[in-house]
Protein: Tryptophan--tRNA ligase
Amino acid sequence: MRVVSGIQPTGKPHLGNYLGAIVNYVKLQDEAVAAGGECFIFLADLHALSMPHDPAELSEATREMVATLVACGVDPGKTVLFNQAQVPAHAELQWLLNGTARMGWLNRMTQWKDKAGKNREGQSVALFTYPVLQAADVLLYQATHVPVGEDQKQHLELARDIAQKFNNDFCPEDAPLFTLPDPYIPPAAARIMSLRDGTAKMSKSDMSDMSRINLVDDADTIMKKVKKAKTDPEPLPSEEKGLEDRPEARNLVGIYGALTGRSTAEVLAELGGEGFGAFKPKLGEALVETLAPINTRFRELKADQEALDAILARGAAQARERGVPTLDAAYRALGLVRG
Ligand code: TYM
Structure:
C-alpha cells in the first residue's frame, strides 16, 4: 500500500480540504503503517506557480501548511512529509511524461476550462500542464491510494491514462513501470460546498471569507459563519430525497454527518423536522469541537519555524531517495543516456 497526496500551499486551508482530503491522509497513513506500506504527503508548491502569486506569501503559506497538516494529525514519524520544490524528481518526471500526455487529454480537464474561462491565451503554460505534474507526483512513488476530494478525480484518471500509455509504449508487457493509482474519495464529504451558495465548491479562492470555514478560525468566527450560512425556510426533511433541490441544506447536513461520523440518512433520521434555528447551533458546536484542538496545536507549531523547516528537510531527503528507482527506470525506458 502506497499512499500519496498533495495540497497546494495557497490561501488558508479550509473545511473542504479537511473533510475531503486531510482526514483521509491521517486515516490512510495509519493503515499504510499497519500494512507495512508507506505514506507520502507533500505541499504542492510547484503547482502554486500556475496562478499569479506573491513569493513572500508562498513561503509563509508553505510553513503554515506544514503546521496545519501536523496539527490535523499527519505524523512526520509515519508519513514522508515534504514540499515538491525540494524534490527535483517531480519536475523531472513531469518532463519525461510530457512526451506521453496528449494535448487533447489536457484540453478536456474541467479545472483547466473553469480556471481559464474565455481567456485561454492569457493563462500560464503551467496552468495547462499542471495535471501532468500531478501525474508525476503520484507515479514517482508508485501510488496505490490517492486520498483526494471529488474535484481531483479527473486529474487522477488522467494520471492513470498517462501511466498506461507509458507502460504500453515503453515497457515490456510483463514488466510495466508505473502502478495505476486509485483515487480514495470520502463518500459523504467528497465535495463540501460554499456556505453562501450550495452550488459552488468551498474554495480558498472565493472572494468572500464568509463562504468557508478556515481551519484556523476561532470559535466565535465559526459560530458567526454558521449562523449566517445561506439556508431555506423549510425544516430538515426526515429522508434524503427531501434534500433534492435544497443544495444548502444538503451541504450543512453532509458537513454535520462528516463531523459526527454519520451518514446523511442517519442525521436526518435523528434531526428530521428540526428548523435551522435549532440545527445551526449544533452544527457550529460540532465544528468548534473538531477544530479547536487543531487550532491550538497549529499555533504552537507555527511559533517554531525552524522545527517546521526541519520537518520538510527530513521529509524531502526521504522522498528524494524513494523516488530514485522509478525516475531512473523512466529515463532508461525512454532510451536517454545518462553515463
Ligand atoms: P487543493 O490544494 O486545491 O486541495 C487539496 C485537497 O483538498 C480537496 N478539496 C476538497 N474536498 C472536498 N470539498 C471541497 N470543497 C474541497 N476543496 C478542496 C482536494 O480535492 C484535494 O484533495 N492539484 C491538487 C494538489 C495536488 C495533488 C497532487 C493531489 C498536486 N499534486 C497529487 C493529489 C495527488 C490541488 O490543487 O488540491
Remarks:
- The chain has twelve helices and five strands.
